[in-house]
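Subject: Protein record for review, amino acid sequence with backbone structure tokens
Category: Structural biology, sequence-to-fold work with a learned token vocabulary.
Format: Residues in single-letter code; tokens as whole numbers, each standing for a residue.
Body of memo: The sequence and its backbone structure tokens, given next.
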Amino acid sequence: MAKETKTSKKTKDEAKLLKSSETKKLPGSEAKKLPNKESKKLPVSKTRAKKIKHSYQVKDPENALLLKLKDGDVIIEMYPEDAPNHVERIKELVRAGFYNGLKFHRVIEGFMAQTGCPYGNGTGGSGKKLKAEFNRNPHKRGTVSMARAMNPDSADSQFFICFGNCDWLNGQYTVWGEVTSGMEYVDNIKKGGGANGAVSDPDEIVSMVVIADI
């Protein structure tokens, strides 16, 4: 058998970081509670709201997210045609305020930043698993894709944003969006250390909203 190169070993090791056989299947009582009603919003005039939405210059405000980080605003445009069930669920969680305050618990320089765990350690979710919607969208700089355990149909609420091209992930994870503005702020997310990229005192999602709701 040919000797494995350092590069191929590295990419295989990085891919394994997104799969964890130890990921817990949370019953409803342990999953982060979703409020029955949407979070209250400060009133904004129709004229002001129209100007705000227009300023983000997205193709479809209903399928675009405003992700606020400590250093600035990030725009994510979603792919409802390629991953309809994932996009629908992400919007449901965003509108429930699920992601607000969650940590970027696993961040690896040059690879990706992962978030979406209510416990901040990669073991939790919202309590609803999603059937895989693998598609032809590549994992490249700015790609937003779902993390999962070994089972392809185990994605829940955790997702990651790629810092660079990660071709070895193509066809194995559900790509549901892309950062179209503010990637420089994603680059500034605090990086982790060690083999698994765990972050000490990690950065958080300040807030996430569907741009159509602003």
